[in-house]
Amino acid sequence: MIRKLSKLIYSVLVFCLILCSCISYGSTKEVNHWISAWNVSTTNFTRLKSFGLFNYNNRTIRTIVTSSFSGTKERIKFSNEYGTEPLSIGAVSVSLVNSDGTLKNQTNKSLTFNGKKAVNVKKGAFVWSDPVEINIKVLDKIAVSTYFPKGIKEVTGGCGGVETYFSQKGNHINSSNTKKDYKLEVMSGFPNICPFLSSIEVSTSESNGSILAFGDSITTLSWPEYFIKELKDNNINNLSVFREAIAGNRILHDTVSDMMGIFGVAGISRFEKAITNHEGVGYVIVLEGINDIMSTGPGGTSPASEFASADQITAGLQRYIDIAHKHRLKIYGATIMPFKGYTTYTDEEETRRQEVNNWIRNSGKFDAVIDFDKTTLDFKNPAKLKLKYDSGDHIHPNDAGGEAMAKSIDLKLFK
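Given the sequence above, the corresponding structure tokens read:
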């Protein structure tokens, strides 16, 4: 009798365990997080107002960017990090964009901030919009139209993967024809200018993540967009790509005082914040060091006292590696590309470039090496960019160069 009772109790316990397991399994919900579909690193753009830019009093700006990830729920960030007074935003809309620059029908939606259409961004701060539901696919063009009812004193902005337009006087966030109702905001030497808008994030499963491209002006250009396309074409759909890149940025030194912060703080000062401020980052690609090498040369923007030796530059790169590994991220080092013919070029600078590249390739410190130097150099004159990849200034690659850079990246590093 006792034996039968024991068997009965055992059977009941087993049944309860199975039932609890089934209930638990059935009630499990997928956990989502926000990952970056597009991003810029912000700096102080106020100095550029002297060139006639950013006259946005009672005007609308339209910023068009490329999404690196698919999703149905997004949020958008505006930064007033370098402002000394509140930034007044009167209204914002977001829409998908056709190839001719017009807004796609029935995709234009107004953004809200804590349920309100207008927002004042405090000085030195940023604000996220409330989530908005738009069905976005990889490589879709997204337009963010922002109305500024008042004049703007200081400008926080960034560069990379963006076209920015400004309207005539008034609120034009719902205008569908960008080319007709807006003019392109552009300045020679500062490509892809983007004021105030700093990030677009997508809500997605925690099984999806991001690749962060960290660097200088070369990374504000087109190679990350071509890399997004490479991932898509090879069915790598679980990773977004976004930038933390600043034109003129150096690994070791902040922007010199007379440039008023345009080139940002030193890479070693911003790197840890860059890799930890975004959820889901799994990989970092670093392409930086060219400005440390050449900005103290003849006609450069930095004083001779900030000369950086090859050993100092590689020590800075080692700090990136140590920080990335502390946060359990994989970090891939890109070799520095040739720049003979650029205004500040000297043979001594070329020697330092080769020394740094030798360390990147052969030290074994990076988790892998992406050899952009080898991809873009002129084999007959290895100190120069290949002509078909040269934008014309002999240091920045054109779109063909950006595409070649993206295609040279081993996609097995991300599988």
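Residues 185 and 311 are 40 Å apart (CA to CA). Try to locate this feature in the token string yourself.
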